[in-house]
Amino acid sequence: MNEFRLDGKVALISGSARGLGAAMAETLAAGGAKIVIADILDKEGKETAAKLGANGLFVHLDVTKESDWEAAIETAVKHFGGIDVVVNNAAIETTSLLENCTLEEFNKTFNVNVSGVFLGVKHAIRAMKPGGISGRGGSIVNISSAAGLKGALGLGAYCASKGGVRLLTKAAAVECGRLNYGIRVNSIHPGLIKTEMGVKTLNDYVRLGLIPTEEEAEAAFINAHLIGLGRPQDIANGVYFLASNAAQWITGIELSVDGGYIAA
Questions:
Q1: Alpha-carbon distance 243 to 75, whole Å?
Q2: Do residues 12 and 71 touch, judged by C-beta distance below 8 A?
Q3: Residue 210 falls within a domain, yes or no?
Q4: What is the pLDDT along the chain (264 residues), one digit of tens a residue?
Q5: Residue 174 to residue 162: CA distance in whole angstroms
Q6: 158 is catalytic
Q7: What 3-state class would DSSP assign to 13?
Q8: 202-211: long-range contacts, CB 8 A cutoff, minimum separation 24
Q9: Residue 22: partners with Cβ closer than 8 Å, 6 or more residues away
Q10: Which domain holds residue 14?
Q11: Active-site residue (options: 158, 205, 240, 261)
Q12: Considering only CA atoms, which of 3, 169, 192 is closest in space to residue 93?
């Protein structure tokens, strides 16, 4: 079972000050990894890092800024001696009918959800590949969504962005594999989790008049998942597996952690 341990690994997780990202950080740290909490939320990020003690470090990261990515990766390597795992988790969700979605909203969604992941993948590869500042290979895990595999009412911009993450992941996996970089790249596709973002989605459905009440919206989403809604821990467990050596022969996959949403 030693291949499931993360001892000696260093992981940077974007958007990890709270919610899913914080659960990922705590789970990977419990497995022995050193964690870089990377977020625009400085106060919450520092608090989450502090919970991890000497194995936690906070860095300010706006995923849409290339200079922030360069600094975050460099800081991780200098502080912990390398970088082995990068989890591209930071994202925003836009709820709007396509006919009403503004170009500004659409572009903002892509800027964070796709360009932000692209920059994370780019600089993770540069650091992890042979000759990079870490240079010992590693695992990149991109958090897409069940909405990146299946269309959803009122989530056109979000679906499109998460679909982009799915195929960006596969392209990166091909490049890293064919070029013998020793880097695995995979995506995880969560169903609805009742984090702050998940609750926002439910409220937005009511706000747009698509479902009468929040209670009915939650019931509809629960019914759409064959075994109910998930927990942040469920997604964190998937990230943990893909980060570990137990997944050393897995690259380019889309791992649905969605309570059966895609199968339904």
A1: 20
A2: no
A3: no
A4: 899 999 999 999 999 999 999 999 999 999 999 999 999 999 999 999 999 999 999 999 999 999 999 999 999 999 999 999 999 999 999 999 999 999 999 999 999 999 999 999 999 999 999 999 999 999 999 999 999 999 999 999 999 999 999 999 999 999 999 999 999 999 999 999 988 888 888 899 999 999 999 899 989 989 999 999 999 999 999 999 999 999 999 999 999 999 999 998
A5: 19
A6: yes
A7: strand
A8: 204/95, 204/154, 205/95, 205/154, 207/95, 208/95, 208/96, 208/97, 208/154, 210/153, 210/154
A9: 16, 37, 48, 232
A10: 2-191+231-257
A11: 158
A12: 192
Taking Cα atoms as reference points, which of 62, 60, 27 lies closest to residue 188? 27
Tally of domains within the chain: 1
The C-alpha atoms of residue 241 and residue 1 are separated, in whole angstroms, by 12
Residue 21 lies in a domain: yes
Tokens of 209: 């008049």
Q: Which letter, b or e, does each residue of 82-106 get, where b requires 16 or more Cβ atoms within 10 Å of its Cβ?
A: bbbbbbbbbbbbbbbeeeebeeeeb
Give me the CATH number covering residue 162: 3.40.50.720
| Token pair recorded at residue 218 | 């939650």
> Could you tell me the pTM of the whole model?
0.96
Residue type, 163: G
Residue 87 belongs to some domain of the structure? yes
In a domain, 204, yes or no: no
Strand blocks (E) in the chain: 10-14, 34-39, 56-60, 85-88, 138-143, 183-190, 254-257
